[in-house]
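Quick one: examine this chain and its backbone structure tokens and tell me how the chain folds. Here goes:
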Amino acid sequence: MTTEPDLRFLGEQIKRMQTDLRQVRTEQLRLEADQAAIRAEMAEQFAIVEARFEQVHRTMATHFAAIEAQFGQVHRTTAGHFAAIEAQFEQVHRTMTTNLAVVLEALKASR
């Protein structure tokens, strides 16, 4: 006598499998929704961080431009001072040369 499988048992197994598949699908949909929410939140945070970096970049560029302008002003001022000092040294040199020539002439005349 051959035993035929009990169709009721197979039907119950199929129903349980369908229930399990529905639960898996429901869980999959929930996970996909969670994943989409996380992706959206990450994109929002990335945009915030990117905006902050841009703001920091602009601030730094402004500060560097101000510092560069100040260094330029210091350079121009220093160059002006050095030019004035150089002119004074040149004038002192000419005066000393003239005075030495006068002294030498006086010494020649006194001999």
In short: The mean pLDDT is 93. DSSP finds one helix and no strands in the chain. The two ends are 160 Å apart (CA to CA).
